[in-house]
């Protein structure tokens, strides 16, 4: 297969934009950048690139319909989109829930093998954070482990450490 068109998620971020510059400089490929343009995305970092080779689609990698359409046109996907400032997620339980739910849904997508067999994978995620669930790393991991078993007991998905009776 000839590689001509790349889909680069998070391509307006720090690493992604440098990667796109590298691709334009060293190959003949065209690139579609898919970026949500959060506080970390910077359109200016792509501004000097040739418009006939690089286009920016502002959107969310969680938008399955949008991603499906872009995916079909791409020969390869390079994935950089992320909430890379992890503290932002850890301080906000709602964002943690959304992140955990997104992981559960992404992993839970059925995978069809060439043989026709359909494989489904479940996920159980336990969430704990310092200092709420322990000051030492081992205590936090233990709390997360208990929460993970609580999630498992409820049939998969995610659970916060509190749900496992971990120290508050
Ligand atoms: N910067 C580093 O030193 C470093 C080191 C190792 C690994 N990484 C990893 O490389 C990846 C990119 O890092 P970075 O430093 O370029 O991060 P960054 O924060 O600069 O860029 C992330 C980009 O993703 C976009 N984005 C966030 N959520 C999105 C979503 N839901 N849909 C579409 N776009 C979304 C943001 O707008 C941003 O442009 C991350 O996974 C990061 O953890 C970075």
What features would you describe in this structure?
With 168 residues, the chain is of the alpha/beta class. The protein has two domains: 1-81, Rossmann fold, CATH 3.40.50; 92-110 and 122-168, no CATH class. It is built from five helices and eight strands; from the N terminus they run E-H-E-E-H-E-H-H-E-E-E-H-E. The strands form three sheets. A four-stranded parallel beta sheet has the order 3-2-1-4, with helices on both faces. A two-stranded antiparallel ribbon has the order 5-6. A two-stranded parallel sheet has the order 7-8. Helix 1 (14-26) links the parallel strand 1 and strand 2. The radius of gyration is 20 Å and the shape is globular. 24% of the residues are buried. Bound molecules: nicotinamide-adenine-dinucleotide. Nicotinamide-adenine-dinucleotide binds next to helix 1 and strand 2.
Set down the secondary structure blueprint:
Layout: E1 5-9, H1 14-26, E2 30-35, E3 54-58, H2 64-73, E4 76-79, H3 86-90, H4 93-107, E5 111-112, E6 118-119, E7 124-127, H5 137-153, E8 157-160
Parallel strand pairs: 1-2, 1-4, 2-3, 7-8
Antiparallel strand pairs: 5-6
The protein binds nicotinamide-adenine-dinucleotide.
Nicotinamide-adenine-dinucleotide binds at residues 9-10, 12-16, 34-38, 40-41, 60-62, 80-84.
């Amino acid at each position: 297969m000839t590689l001509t068109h790349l889909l680069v998620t998070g391509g307006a971020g720090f690493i992604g934009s440098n990667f796109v510059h590298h691709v334009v400089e060293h190959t003949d490929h065209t690139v579609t950048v898919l970026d949500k343009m959060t506080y970390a995305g910077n359109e200016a970092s792509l501004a000097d690139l040739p418009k006939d080779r690089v286009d920016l689609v502002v959107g969310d990698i969680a938008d399955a319909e949008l991603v499906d359409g872009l995916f079909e046109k791409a020969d390869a996907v390079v994935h950089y989109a992320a909430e890379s400032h992890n503290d932002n997620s850890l301080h906000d339980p709602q964002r943690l829930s959304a992140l955990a739910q997104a992981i559960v849904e992404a992993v839970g997508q059925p995978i069809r093998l060439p043989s026709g067999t359909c494989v489904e994978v479940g996920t159980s995620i336990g969430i704990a954070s310092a200092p709420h669930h322990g000051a030492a790393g081992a205590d936090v991991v233990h709390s997360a482990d208990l929460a993970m078993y609580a999630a498992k007991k409820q049939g998969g998905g995610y659970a916060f450490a509190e749900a496992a009776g971990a120290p508050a």
